[in-house]
Design goal:
alpha/beta, seven-stranded parallel sheet, Rossmann fold, binds nicotinamide-adenine-dinucleotide, globular
Length: 247
């Protein structure tokens, strides 16, 4: 399905990013596996892709850093010759109630989760415009739609990602570049591992499908959005949340 396409996935050494990388590789895409710090884990993803008969490289870059991002995009294009797919997945949390939230916690989350999407999208745009083809998928969150106490920084960033998605979709449509977002609900990854059993039970009550999501639930929808089946979709945010944000 994605034979001949090149994908760059940010924050791809574990969790949802890892699942997306493997999913796109299984469809035939060559994958640049971005990581911030854990080289060993990123290399494991590369090896998994190679074991499937695919092609992949690991690239270290902090998505919040423009110099890193520009170098990462250049390296991807130099290695594979083109760049059709960008998945902006890298993200962090620094939770806290507003009165106690430190400025650095606000800045770190906005810089990674929102500015990171801007940096990477900007960096790939020239190449995608030249190709007159591009598929950008941004990983937002259900809380970007619903809000969440104790996550003002994260929610502001994830809501910003939805607005950024719509603006870029309008701006880039005439070059056949689509920009969509996925808003996951509660997905079992390292990011959510620390939540107590009580919190998880409370969350379950808010999920109509009454189960937590898996990384593969998200990667399946990303695969759809970058496939030809979604050629006529842009500016959309798909909620993959067991029905959490229905209302
Ligand atoms: P995770 O913590 O397992 O993965 C996040 C990845 O991003 C990590 O590999 C991390 O190293 C990387 N990263 C962090 N800062 C980076 C930076 N500056 N530059 C490059 N990489 C960086 O979490 P996950 O659950 O797999 O989350 C993936 C995405 O999905 C995030 O954007 C997250 O906000 C979003 N999301 C997750 C959930 C969930 O329930 N797990 C729900 C909604 C949205």
């Amino acid at each position: 399905m994605l034979n001949g396409k090149v994908a760059l996935v940010t924050g791809a050494s574990r969790g949802i990013g890892r699942a997306i990388s493997l999913q796109l590789a299984k469809q035939g895409a060559k994958v640049a596996v971005n990581y911030a710090g854990n080289e060993a884990k990123a290399n494991e993803v590369v090896e998994e892709i190679k074991a499937l008969g695919g092609e992949a490289i690991a690239i270290k870059a902090d998505v919040a850093n423009v110099t890193d991002v520009d170098a990462m995009v250049k390296e991807t294009i130099k290695t594979f010759g083109s760049l059709e797919i960008l998945v902006n997945n890298a993200g962090i949390t620094r939770d806290g109630l507003i009165m106690r939230m430190k400025e650095e916690d606000w800045d770190a989350v906005i810089n990674t989760n929102l500015k990171g999407v801007f940096n990477c999208s900007k960096a790939v745009t020239r190449q995608m415009m030249k190709q007159r083809f591009g598929r950008i998928v941004n990983i937002s969150s259900v809380v970007g739609v619903l809000g969440n106490a104790g996550q003002a920084n994260y929610v502001a960033a994830k809501a910003g990602v939805i607005g950024l998605t719509k603006s870029l979709a309008r701006e880039l449509a005439n070059r056949n570049i689509t920009v969509n977002a996925v808003a996951p609900g509660f997905i079992e990854t390292d990011m959510t591992d620390e939540l107590s059993e009580d919190v998880k039970q409370e969350l379950l009550k808010q999920i109509p499908l009454a189960k937590l999501g898996q990384a593969e639930d998200i990667s399946a929808v990303v695969r759809f959005l970058v496939s030809d089946d979604a050629n006529y979709m842009t500016g959309q945010t798909l909620h993959v949340d067991g029905g959490m944000a229905m209302n």
